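User: structure tokens for this one?
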Amino acid sequence: MKFTSTHRMAVAASAIIVLALTGCTSSGSEGASGSGESDTGTVRIGINESLSGNLVAYGISASAAIRMAAEEINDAGGIQVDGVSYSIELVERDNLSTPTGAVAAQTELVEDEGIKFIFGPTIGALSLQSVEIGKGQDVIQLSPSGAWQVSGYVSNPDYPYVFSTQVAQDELAVVRVDLIEQIGADVVGLLGSDDDTTAGTVPPIQAELEKRGIEVVDVRFPTDASDLSPYLTRLKSEGADVVFYVYPQARGAEAARITADLGAAKGFVTTNTPASVALEEAVGGPLPIPWASAYGTPSFEYPANERIEAFTEKILAFEPKLPLDVASAVFWFYDYVAMLAEAMEQAGSVEDVPAIAEALQSITYDGVAGRICYRENERIPSADIGSVFVVDGEVESKNTPSSCD
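Assistant:
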């Protein structure tokens, strides 16, 4: 059947949305049916995402990317294993953008639904809570969580099926610090909310800055802080040349505006934030200081090549209401659905989780986000890294290729 995408922002926490993206009649993880010319089966894949609450933009982006990838795989004939064509069926849970919701969603997917393959949650604080549910069970969980990387889940043998979909934080830190050096800085002020996401993002950046001899001032603000001015004033008093704003991205325009208003620094660098912040949102026009953003993905808003441009047009046609401020999050999921499908084909099973995980670790995949591969002894991928640099209203967009052979 033809799938029509919607936001589902009002999905209740207890609701299950099961989407059979083909006309397959069988159910279960590896059931095959029919005695005709071809056999068919179904692979059930779970989504634990923020379909309501304050992180819904990330959930919508993730869901759209997974849905489109699944539909394309099914339309192309599904996953081929031992003469059986397996279609993908999605089982979706809303984690309400809360840690308790993430745990509840993961528990229901794993224990109630028996799902063996789960995408999400996107945000580090939610992923850290949900990851414990699958420990000791044959469940592959994939998320862009930077907190997973810093906390060691993706290299810990006790969590062998936890896979990151965000490029290695140390590789990303190199690009981020390159942008800082492009502006020029002896002292960098790191600013972010005092939570797990900031805690997981800061260490690789700080290590790369210190490796290059750049002094670091690290300032965290409470998650409920109503005004960022005192924290930026502190960075100014500490002599910061550039402010590196970490998280949450929803307050990035506010932080950039205050930085400019206070003259707190001569430049502003951030992560996963659209150039529109520097072009108009921060001060109602071009920001008067250089601004840059590095992504753990290619740039969605300013595609750096024709491949990415074609993909952005396609997914916007699939989901016209995609939230453009965090749309680059689609690259954390789209290619990885196809990689999981390819791993199943290589393993010769849609049920043997250890074999599928081993195959996934070994794949090098030519995707929209470039050439993707997992690093040796770590379940962390290398992929293209995008960045945008804005000066006087002019945007420069580029991709740094992955390190895959």
